[in-house]
TrEMBL record:
Pfam families the UniProt entry points to: Oxidored_molyb
Name this polypeptide is given: Molybdopterin-dependent oxidoreductase
InterPro entries on file: OxRdtase_Mopterin-bd_dom, OxRdtase_Mopterin-bd_sf
Regions crossing the membrane: 30-47
PANTHER family on file: PROTEIN-METHIONINE-SULFOXIDE REDUCTASE
Tree of life domain: Bacteria
Oxidoreductase molybdopterin-binding domain segment(s): 103-245
Key words of the record: Membrane, Transmembrane, Transmembrane helix
Length: 256
């Protein structure tokens, strides 16, 4: 080829054919994605039109019930959440203030425990602190997808129930903040798990009001929505109790 000779151009017909094929494929792809989008919208429309069960469409409730069954079957007293070095512990974000709206008076705070016959007993923070102090460094997992490693300290729920001879033959517990605006349901197996704590310290310091002072629940095999802050009462019940986030579309068990 000569130094100054141009490369011959392709025939115009070839260009036209190539362009036509590209347009055809683009249209086909657009139509395909459009149909998929319409199918998705149709499916979503069908889903949200189903009768509500517990605050969400019935088909979604079936999915959550399946998750609960899997989580329940996987749960064992001998299955422990992994523990980490204390050096890895950090302070979790303040995530949610439900039940913490009222001013905290530590001196007036009491933990009220109600048996199935309606009889109630009250305990001070000193009563809980009189029990063996358990420390653990576990991962706090939020159902939103983030997690953080925290150093917790407190008394085992199992030790609390045993030492004060509280009823432990009832299958469920309802735990609530003092103003009863936040509440979680817990099955007895989860309550008696060796890593379920009535926690009064976090990362070597007493809990702050924003993190649940003076006493909160910590149960590391459950998502953070079960880790009730500012625990005010525990009630034993034979029927599965209400749960704040289960009423808003999450699964009742909330295990992982």
């Amino acid at each position: 080829m000569m130094e100054n000779e141009e490369t011959p151009q392709r025939p115009a017909a070839s260009d036209a054919a190539t362009e036509a094929e590209a347009v055809r494929r683009s249209r086909r792809a657009f139509i395909g994605w459009g149909l998929a989008g319409l199918a998705g919208l149709g499916g979503w429309g069908w889903l949200v039109s189903r009768p509500q069960e517990g605050g969400i469409p019935g088909p979604l409730r079936r999915v959550l019930e399946f998750n609960e069954n899997v989580s329940g079957a996987y749960f064992k007293e001998t299955r422990l959440a992994p523990e980490f070095a204390r050096s890895r512990a950090t302070t979790p974000r303040v995530n949610g203030k439900y039940g913490l709206e009222d001013e905290l008076d530590p001196a007036a705070w009491r933990l009220r425990v109600q048996s199935i016959d309606g009889q109630a007993r009250e305990f001070t923070l000193a009563d809980v602190q009189a029990l063996p102090k358990i420390e653990m460094v576990t991962e706090l997992k939020c159902i939103e997808g983030w997690s953080v490693i925290v150093h917790w300290a407190g008394a085992r729920m199992a030790d609390f129930l045993s030492h004060y001879q509280l009823p432990a033959a009832v299958p469920y517990l309802l735990l609530q903040t003092p103003n009863e605006k936040y509440y979680v349901g817990l099955d007895l197996k989860s309550a008696l798990h060796p890593q379920t704590l009535l926690c009064y310290e976090m990362n070597g310091r007493r809990l702050t009001p924003a993190h649940g002072a003076p006493l909160r629940l910590v149960t590391p095999l459950k998502y953070g929505i079960k880790h009730l802050k500012r625990l005010g009462s525990i009630a034993f019940t034979t029927e599965r109790p209400k749960d704040f986030w289960a009423e808003r579309g999450y699964d009742w068990d909330s295990g992982h």
